[in-house]
């Protein structure tokens, strides 16, 4: 039960001007796709928001051709300074239209408005500002001699941070002089289509950014298209492996940002209340639909029961419900399919003998919802300790020594992120050195910044996004 009640504080939807149907954005214009349409719904209410086109192979081909023409005739010939001006313009428009983007993102994705408003959209704008600054300074970014673009880049993004992933992908690609064909995820296409309007508003030359909507087959058409020079993919490890196989033996370059099963490690000298906040942020932020989520809590045995009881008390105060209410902490699960996956894995957790607890909150009658859930008594072999649940579900394991914490943290096919909670700086440095994870947070979790590289080890993928490192995959260097 919440400790006290809040009056409803819903955000107005009036700021969003939704059309009933959308075409594909190719060569600077919205065009009818040649495939059948599909519906994008609000996962919080199952209301149909808009009909969207499923791009066919022919549509993808048209988009790649438009991107190639724009690359050859305009974008690759433009100075970095001028490319930067377009990126700054896009960044400023995103700021001006931030409220509209935030509301639409929460409607289409189900995430709480306070996250889309305070994190997703401001960070998306920040990625454009940051990369705009690099556009005329690429020779000084230590990328190698004579950095130059690959050409046409195919980009496929997931549904958990639709606009933010779009910005992670498009901003460095354009800053380095590439042109883009981007496919948003099939359950969250709407903010990418609104971004297409931003490209028009910014007078971006036609064909520099093309947005094709659709599901797996549309993504596959991008991957397989002979006119694509480089791929950037964020999504599941399964699809990432298929992409790696599909492009092996071709000249296509790729970066893959895949799944994770991060350990959030709490030592007995950690400030416990802060650690509890970090645990909550680590796994319940964005309904746990976060590849770097702290989905495994490793807590030192001597403080395990105290952390567990404080954590449960805190989870009792989380407000689950209407994503558009500014007081909502946890929104809707993104789709029926994802909810089914979460249910199947949590059932397996119970079946394998872990102890299940949830915060008992009331859930709306329509839409896709899952209560914040904690499993204790989890062992290394349980599926809920090994597989990515991608939902608001925490698996708690214990350890006695730092060595044991490291061994357990690294005992996963993934290696995207990790968290360490302790007051000892030397222990933080030792642990960070031992952990096989691309990002290690100390006494915090889920901090993102455009200047900071992000990416994984092992089955979490390869390549880095963000920071100077994030420019590297978008350029070739040397003679
Ligand atoms: P998630 O588990 O996050 O939904 P997916 O890997 O299924 O991850 O989806 C991420 C993105 O990859 C989405 O845009 C999806 O449409 C796309 N996708 C799915 N299957 C394929 C495929 N075979 N080839 C290319 N892209 C795909």
UniProtKB/TrEMBL annotation:
Q: Which Gene3D superfamilies match?
A: Aldehyde Dehydrogenase, Chain A, domain 1, Aldehyde Dehydrogenase, Chain A, domain 2
The domain of life for this entry's organism is Bacteria
Q: Does the keyword Nucleus apply?
A: no
Spell out the catalytic residues.
Answer: 257
A Pfam family matched by this chain, by name?
A: Aldedh
Keyword Transferase set for record: no
InterPro entries in the record, alphabetically?
A: Ald_DH/histidinol_DH, Ald_DH_C, Ald_DH_CS_GLU, Ald_DH_N, Aldehyde_DH_dom
Q: Which UniProt keywords apply?
A: Oxidoreductase
Q: Which residues form the Aldehyde dehydrogenase domain?
A: 31-477
> Which terms in the Gene Ontology molecular function aspect does this entry carry?
oxidoreductase activity, acting on the aldehyde or oxo group of donors, NAD or NADP as acceptor
Quote the PROSITE patterns the UniProt record gives: ALDEHYDE_DEHYDR_GLU
- Similarity annotation: Belongs to the aldehyde dehydrogenase family.
> What is the protein name for this chain?
Betaine-aldehyde dehydrogenase
